[in-house]
Design goal:
Largest sheet: 2 strands, antiparallel
Number of helices: 9
CATH class of the largest domain: Mainly Alpha
Shape: globular
Number of strands: 2
Mean pLDDT: 85
CATH architecture of the largest domain: Orthogonal Bundle
CATH topology of the largest domain: Arc Repressor Mutant, subunit A
Structural class: mainly alpha
Length: 168
């Protein structure tokens, strides 16, 4: 079952951390095991927000303080410029999500089939919601480019099924 994230969940998790800190600590360690980058991302975001020093961020991540500073700067740039979540790959000739490298057109085509962003998030659980939303926003600002990519894919799919009807 997939539950869409809502602000109340975070507030109640924070409240639960006060009431049952061991339970929340166990939960966070479980999350870090399932999503290994999460602890580093949180530490770097905390450095960027001024909640941790560079040295504290380096201790948590095991990175050199200069690397933490570099990542914190990129975090700032991402939050100020959501377009940085989408990059253009000249080799492939298409826009991609910066971290996951999934083509924007593929995310948009999937969203059209599924209907909602929540279902899109469920289909791509390993891609941060911010990247998915950036892909959808990018497509809204570049409709001709994304439509051409989707049409190119659909055309290839039609030709393939005509030439090889036994392949699905």
């Amino acid at each position: 079952m997939w539950t869409t994230f809502d602000d109340w969940q975070l507030r109640q998790l924070q409240r639960l951390a006060t009431l049952e800190p061991q339970r929340v600590e166990a939960l966070m360690n479980y999350l870090y095991g399932v999503e290994p980058k999460l602890l580093n991302d949180l530490a770097i975001a905390a450095v960027e927000a001024g909640e941790l020093t560079l040295e504290q961020g380096a201790a948590v991540t095991g990175m050199h303080p200069e690397d933490v500073a570099d990542y914190a700067q990129r975090w700032t740039e991402k939050s100020m410029h959501p377009d940085m979540l989408v990059v253009f790959d000249p080799e492939k000739g298409t826009a991609l999500c910066a971290e996951s490298r999934i083509p924007v057109w593929e995310i948009v085509a999937t969203q059209r089939r599924l209907g909602t962003v929540a279902e899109l998030t469920e289909r791509f659980p390993s891609i941060p919601a911010s990247e998915l939303m950036a892909a959808v926003d990018y497509a809204a600002r570049h409709p001709e480019e994304i439509e051409a990519e989707i049409e190119r894919y659909e055309s290839l799919r039609r030709r393939t099924s005509e030439e090889y009807p036994f392949v699905r």
